[in-house]
Amino acid sequence: MALSEFPDEEMAPSTAAGSLASDALMSVPADLETFATPLDRQTAEYKNKSDRFFVGVSSYREQYAQLYFTRLMSLKQRTLEAMKKLSPKTEVTNALDVEEGVEVVLYGVVYKEMKLKPCILDEYAKESALDSKITSSNFTADDDFLVLEDENARIRLEPEEGVLCPENIVTGVIIAVRGRAQQDGAFVVNAVAYPPAIIQRPMPPPSSEASPAPYIALVSGLEIGSVNDPLRTQLLVDHLCGLLGGGQDQELSARVVRVVIAGNSLAYDKEIPTGAVTAAQRKDISASLRELDLSLSQLAAGVPVDVMPGGWDLSNTCMPQQPLHACLFPGASREAEAAITSRNPAQPSDAMADLGVFGVNSFGWS
Amino acid sequence: MDAKRRFESSQGPNKRPFGGPTPVAPEFLSQEDDEMEEMFLDQSMAQIVDLQAPAVKDVSRWQRPPAPQLNLSTDKITFMQIDIDNIAGDAHPRLTPNTPGPVPIIRVFGVTKAGNSVCAHVHGFEPYFWIPAPAGFSPDDCNAFRQILNGAVGERATAKARTPVYIRRVEIHKKMSLLHYQPDGEQPFLKIVTQLPSHVATARGIVEKGIEVPGRGQQTFQTYESGVLYPLRFMVDCDIVGGNWVEAPAGCYQMHSPKTSHCQYEIDIRWDKLVSHPTEGDYQGMGKLRILSFDIECAGRKGHFPEPELSVCCAVFGGQGHFPEPELSGHFPEPEQDSVIQIASMVTVQGDKSPVIKNVMTLGTCAPIVGAEVLSFDDERDLLKHWSALVRESDPDLIIGYNIMNFDLWYLLQRAEALKVPEFPFFGRMKTCPVRMRDATFSSKAYGTRESKEFTIEGRVPFDLLQAIQRDHKLSSYSLNAVSAHFLGEQKEDVHHSAISELQAGDEQTRRRLAVYCLKDAYLPQRLLDKLLIIYNYIEMARVTGVPLQYLLARGQSIKVYSQLLRKARVKNLLAPHLPGGGSSQGDGVAYEGATVLDAKAGYYDKPIATLDFASLYPSIMMAHNLCYSTLVPPAMAKALDPAHYTKSPTGDVFMKAEKVKGILPEILEELLSARKRAKADMKKTDDPMLKAVLDGRQLALKVSANSVYGFTGATVGKLPCLEISASTTSFGRTMIEQTRNLVQEHYTVANGYENNAEVIYGDTDSVMVNFHCTELSESMRLGAEAAEVITKTFIQPIKLEFEKVYWPYLLISKKRYAGVIWTNPDKYDKIDTKGIETVRRDNCLLVKTLITTCLDKILIERNVQSAVEYVKSTIADLLMNRIDLSLLVVTKGLTQEAENYANKSAHAELAIKMRKRDPVTAPSVGDRIPYVIVKAVKGAKGYEKSEDPIYALEHNIPIDCHHYLEHYLTQPLIRIFEPIMKDVNTLFSGEHTRSISNPTPSADSGIMRFAKVQEKCKGCKTPLKKGEKTLCEHCQGNETDFFLESLSLVNQLEKQHNQLWTQCQRCQGSLTQDVLCTSRDCPIFYRRKKVYKDLSEAQKELKRFDW
Hints:
A: alpha/beta; four-stranded parallel beta sheet; 11 strands; 22% helix; B: 1108 residues; alpha+beta; 27 helices; globular
């Protein structure tokens, strides 16, 4: 897709890659030839492999246990290796075989016992009518404690001072701990290891030929509909379309082969309301959606766009989030049908495999 | 354990026959049989099996701390006794010399301060009873009379009760009868001492029918204290009360040899050498009791009839060569066929936080469990043998569990018999006595009739938490799940027994899963015990009333009062008569007038209503008017007395005044109440939480005991009924309530200088509600306190009218039905108090409870009637629109007998039949609690025909009959509440909000729908879609976004709920990496899980109609 259809020559920015001074816009065009040469947007091969995250009809039959178990199995080795660096000699065992007083390494999923965590059973508790009025927004308490669960069993962790602070950890994290079991069955932790980030595949060397390396622009948190100045979004769109700045800026824009909007395009309070949608809410959301639609249409006219759902976008709650429906931005989809892809997180492109997520998968565990 | 439900009785405590404090009625067990059986066991069991402890590796870790060697002449043994029984044995050569034949020996079991177990054989205590001496009977006649009686008893004695001598002695003593005022003072009585306890009953029968008295011909006698259980007799005479500390002084005891028990110390002592310590000072503490809590799991077999592995399993483990015929009536495990697959046990030392032993024995391999010992066996017999050994070695004083009486213990004994494991039942404390079981019927006015098993485990007290909780708490369900939800605030996992068999048939990991579940179930009773301070409360109750711990659960209230009466009478030289009829359940039906209830001036009171209560009404009346057996004057005698010396009750009965003769009931009551005051005062002083718990248990026990004295006199089937006393007590109560009303209304008038005329709006048994017509809360409190003081002065001491609380606002519906907000101080209300309103009823669905509770909350606390009305209307609208959570509509009832046997058709029984037709394997059987919902049926269908399994209804989209719920469940309670407040209650049930009714389409695969062709309609306007249109018609297309949003919102909402529900189930089961198995139908989440799954599937289908 080329960046060339400027209707008004007068308004068209100067180009001449790199040769113009930064104040070129303020000066008389030196060379009309360069001025008239349109820049071509670079293109790259693109394969949308996000299909594997597309859930047709979810059965809702699976329990969470499978997820925890699989994650534990896949992170276990790395976590233990990290622990090995800390403490190469200590024997690794599992919660069942812990002997009292012997220092060992254990691994597993952390479960944090929180008394104040809201619980659906509270609805049935007696005298809830009176008590529920005193609600708290803080779900942590001083007596929260951690439990480590491996494939077989649970053991209560009692971290030594400063080793593993319950406040800093959430349920679901995979860790390895070193310590000793006490008589009462609790495990006193003196060291902890987390799974390190996976080693990344090296970036492919930039293609040496004439064209410089292509870019993918990642954008998130447009939060349209919030009190933010709409100018922000407009400037972004204009910039990516190459409508702003001097030749250098435009050249940069031309190297952007794709824009990925990685979530939270709508403002937080435009989250889908729970309960029946009222007319006022619908109106509000529709207005924001129209605004988003407009921006996207402009953007998509200039560059291929991927829209991914974020934490408070109009997608579903369960993992993996499903692509945003095309009917949410009818204008943009009509405008450039091929250019806009609403999609799931994974993005393999141009020999680079990357996983783009908004981060929803790291909160919301319970 | 699912199977236990079979016995969890669904019937609640019976309705109280009178208002106010329940006249506690007695219970009956045939006591004589009891003794007979006890006595001769030792002999019949003499040929006992060789008790070879099975080869358990290192049993020492299970044992008690080692017992130090004692020096007989310098060391005393002090121990807390917990069980006392008696046997017939050979006389001790030194302690009871020259006694031929079998003699009764009392065994006292207990534990020392250091935690060592003790068994004391107490010798020389002779059974006896009394009869009045015939006129002119002299000491010289004693022997002749003895011989006659001895002969008569000899003739009647059964083969088992044959002894060389039956009546050992006849003595003359000066005594008085407890019943009736005795102006003549002490009279001669004959003390008849028998050889064995069972001879007492035989001799009693003889003298009651008539016996030849030397020189005076045939005479019949009233007997005295002839129905006292022998161990209780011993306790009374030695001043031993249940669970107190006793001492064998140095030099007074000998070691019993060879040892016959598993106790660490086993001693012989004469009964008069044993010292009983009153529960004071150092002796009020609790010994280091060892408590064994256990639970078993059994394989349910019939549920899996077609599976061949199971039949193999049955053949191998169950010792049955054939596979049994399938029965359609259910699949409750039968001890003859179904194996015990796991037993989890936990031994805790009283007062310690964590158990000393925690293990689980499994049939088949089982992966290890943190913090618990796993013992796996291939042969079920070994499993049983080991458990029996565990009990012997760990030597618990108490054996607790949930429904162990009717299930676990019963099952184990039956199973051991079926498998021919003769050594299994020997887990009592006596080496040669197996554990015995028999059917017992417990019947009591207060607790209803219950059938149960009774176990004799020598020296150990079996204590079933289910029974204790059924007695002490009124709950809507007594399943372990419901009980733990109620008291511990947690839901318990409930694994269906078909799942149990599956887990058992799996590998060591699945069996481990089951073992973890089993361990939890074994731990819960212990936690309940700790949480509810049951040990403290029961031991204190035993100490206060003087009966052994075991009587508290196995018997009713009357034995407790009787024990106190006997003790007091003994001190006063009085004898309690043995009344014929006492001890059997005849003569019921004699009624007397109960408490009074003043007419309720129904309405909604926005002004503070002061409540004046009589403190301990009935005990204080009995004390004030000196009402007692020993002060009651027979009408004939009353004429001869000076009226100044007696009180005539409103019923016309005459009682002597305290100045002339002090009654012993008032004295017992005074002691109880002053002891309660002391306990309460001590409680304030101490900081030790253990002692506090003991004292609190004591004050509670004292209070209950004081209140049960009145009931004892009124229990017509009791030990010593005396309706003159109970009827007089209630009659005094009635006049007092009326007197209070009159005094208040006469005193607090404008004429007397008060701002308004006071008005008594309601009064019940022991309380009076007064409306002083003042608007200030503090003013009403002041007037209330003042009135209580003024009126108290008009009554005889110690009757006391107390001002306790103010209701503001107060909603008085009718007699015994009211609700109000309680204020005990002017700044902050305490809580909502309701009586007789559907907030706690067990047979209702949750919807009613929530609705009524919320309404009361809105009316009384928010004082916003309008919002309550709105709430009701919106709930009704939700109900009609089928938006109510199904779990709120489930009604649960227990199937107490085979469904066909119900005389009246009832919803749950009909459903049981229906479910059996559908699938006999999963259908409920007797003892199961059946949850159901009311669904729409053909027009004119009876109520009971409309019940349906909630899960079935959900899955098949069977519409709920919301009108049935509205009419049968909601209308009446709502009318009751709203009638006093609203002008026209009917507006709640008619109008705008009742006009939208949802009528779900029956699902496509059933009934007539199978013939219907489904045509897609536009999501917007419901127009049938044309070809090529998938979601919306051409006219609605423009608003696609809106419709999409709506669908999405629904899916999201449900997904969130789905998440919350499952995460809760994960928390409850205590594991993240293992699948949730629980299918507890007592848990509301179970239904919601099902419902949300179904809703979500549907909502998602709708969402997917939009093109992707």
